[in-house]
C-alpha cells in the first residue's frame, strides 16, 4: 500500500481510502459482515476511512465506530456534515448551530472523542462561509476535530474559503473531496489545479463512476443495472444510468473501449480505473466503496499499480482531459447555474 501526505498537513494516508457509504441499509445491512470488511481493509494497510452522518441515516457511522474500536489511533477518521438529517429546517446545512450539534451526534455514533477530518458535504449557499469556518475553527480548538475539509465545492468556493480563512484568521480547509474518474474528468480543468495551488489534499470520490467502471457496464452485458439505482435515496438517479440519454450512451461507449485497454494491459477495469485516479499528482487518495468482501478484494488489488504513459495517452484519446461525459455526474451545480432565473437579466418593461 502506498502512503501520501494529505495536502500540507503532514498526515500520511493510504492511496486507497475506505468509503463507508455502502455499510448499513443503503448497501450491506449486516453489521458483522461490514465490520469484517472494514477490518480486512485496515489489515491490508488502508489507514483512512471516510463516512458521513447522512449515510444510512447515521448507521454507517455506528458500524465504523464498532469496527475501529481498539484501533482508533491507527485510523485517520473522516466524516461529513451539512446534508439533511431530519425533517426540521435546521437539521441540515453549514450554520454554526447545526455544525456543532451534528458533530456531537457523529462523535457519539462513532464512539470516539475526536474526528480527524470533518468535511462540509456540499456547499451551503444560505450560510456565510465565515460562519462555517468559525464553527469548524472552534471545534478544532476544543479538540473535537483535527482538520476541516470540503466536498464537491466549485473552484471559486474553494478559493473563497481559503481567502476567508486567511482574512478572518480561521482554520482553513486542508482538503477537497471531488468526484473523479475515467468518465468524470471535469475537475482536472480547475478543481485539481486549485487544490494544488493551495496545497490542499484531494480525496477523490466515485473513482468507479458510480459502478460504471466495475466491469459490468458493457454493451454485451445482459443487465447492467446498478445496485445504487435501487437503493440510494439521492444523487444516483436515472440521469446517471438511463441509457436513453445520449450522455450515458457515450459513457457506455467509453467504458467498452476502456475495458479493451484494461484487457490489453493485463488489468481489470477496476484496477485501471483506480490506478488512473491515484496517478494524478494532486490526488492524495481514491475512495473505494465496497459492499461485499469480494468487492474489497477486487479494489485493493489496484493499490500498487502504476500506469504506463502509453496507457494514459490511450485513455486521453477516449475521454479527453477535463471532460465530464455526462454533466450530471459532476456532483453539484451552483444555484446560479441550476436556476435559469439566476443567469438571466430581468427584462425591464
> How many distinct beta strands?
10
Shape descriptor: globular
For the sheet with most strands, the description reads: 8 strands, parallel, barrel
Give me the strand/helix succession: EEEHEHEHEHEHEHEHHHHEHHH
Q: Could you give the distance between the termini?
A: 65 Å
Please state how the strands of the largest beta sheet are arranged side by side: 3-4-5-6-7-8-9-10
Proportion of residues in extended strands: 5-15%
State the low-pLDDT regions, or none: none
Supply the helix-strand structural class.
alpha/beta
The number of helical segments is 13
Helix residue percentage: 25-40%
Instruction: Calculate the mean pLDDT score and round it.
Output: 92
Radius of gyration, whole Å: 20 Å
Oligomeric form:
single chain
List keywords for this structure.
single chain, 349 residues, alpha/beta, 8-stranded parallel beta barrel, two-stranded antiparallel ribbon, 10 strands, globular
Describe the protein's architecture and organization:
The structure is a single chain. The chain has helices at residues 31-43, 59-68, 96-110, 129-141, 155-168, 191-197, 227-231, 238-241, 246-264, 269-279, 293-300, 309-318, 335-338, and strands at 3-5, 12-14, 16-19, 48-50, 76-81, 115-120, 145-151, 173-177, 201-204, 285-288. With 349 residues, it is of the alpha/beta class. Strand 8, helix 6 (191-197) and strand 9 form a beta-alpha-beta unit. The chain is globular.
Amino acid at each position: 500500500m502506498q502512503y501520501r501526505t494529505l495536502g500540507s498537513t503532514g498526515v500520511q494516508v493510504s492511496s486507497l481510502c475506505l468509503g463507508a457509504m455502502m455499510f448499513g441499509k443503503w448497501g450491506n445491512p449486516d453489521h458483522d459482515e461490514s465490520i469484517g470488511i472494514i477490518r480486512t481493509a485496515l489489515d491490508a494497510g488502508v489507514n483512512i476511512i471516510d463516512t458521513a452522518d447522512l449515510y444510512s441515516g447515521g448507521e454507517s457511522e455506528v458500524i465504523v465506530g464498532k469496527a475501529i474500536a481498539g484501533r482508533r489511533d491507527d485510523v485517520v477518521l473522516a466524516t461529513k456534515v451539512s446534508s439533511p438529517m431530519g425533517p426540521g429546517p435546521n437539521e441540515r446545512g453549514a450554520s454554526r448551530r447545526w455544525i456543532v450539534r451534528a458533530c456531537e451526534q457523529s462523535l457519539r455514533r462513532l464512539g470516539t472523542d475526536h474526528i480527524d477530518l470533518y468535511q462540509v458535504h456540499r456547499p451551503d449557499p444560505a450560510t456565510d462561509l465565515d460562519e462555517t469556518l468559525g464553527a469548524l475553527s472552534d471545534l478544532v480548538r476544543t479538540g473535537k476535530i483535527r482538520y476541516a475539509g470540503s466536498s464537491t465545492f466549485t473552484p471559486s468556493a474553494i478559493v473563497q474559503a481559503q481567502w476567508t480563512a486567511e482574512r478572518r484568521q480561521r482554520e482553513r480547509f486542508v482538503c477537497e473531496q471531488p468526484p473523479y474518474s475515467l468518465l468524470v474528468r471535469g475537475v482536472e480543468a480547475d478543481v485539481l489545479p486549485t487544490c494544488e495551488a493551495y496545497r490542499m489534499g484531494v480525496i477523490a470520490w466515485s473513482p468507479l463512476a458510480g459502478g460504471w467502471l466495475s466491469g459490468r457496464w458493457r454493451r454485451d452485458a445482459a443487465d447492467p443495472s446498478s445496485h445504487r439505482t435501487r437503493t440510494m435515496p439521492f444523487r444516483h438517479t436515472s440521469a446517471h444510468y438511463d441509457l436513453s440519454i445520449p450522455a450515458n450512451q457515450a459513457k457506455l461507449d467509453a467504458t467498452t473501449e476502456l475495458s479493451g485497454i484494461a484487457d490489453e494491459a493485463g488489468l481489470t477495469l477496476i484496477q485501471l480505473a483506480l490506478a488512473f485516479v491515484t496517478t494524478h499528482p494532486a490526488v492524495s487518495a481514491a475512495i473505494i466503496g465496497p459492499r461485499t468482501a469480494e468487492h474489497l478484494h477486487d479494489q485493493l488489488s489496484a493499490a500498487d499499480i502504476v500506469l504506463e504513459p502509453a496507457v494514459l495517452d490511450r485513455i486521453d484519446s477516449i475521454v479527453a482531459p477535463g471532460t465530464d461525459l455526462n454533466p450530471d455526474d459532476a456532483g453539484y451545480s451552483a444555484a446560479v447555474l441550476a436556476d435559469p432565473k439566476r443567469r438571466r437579466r430581468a427584462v425591464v418593461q
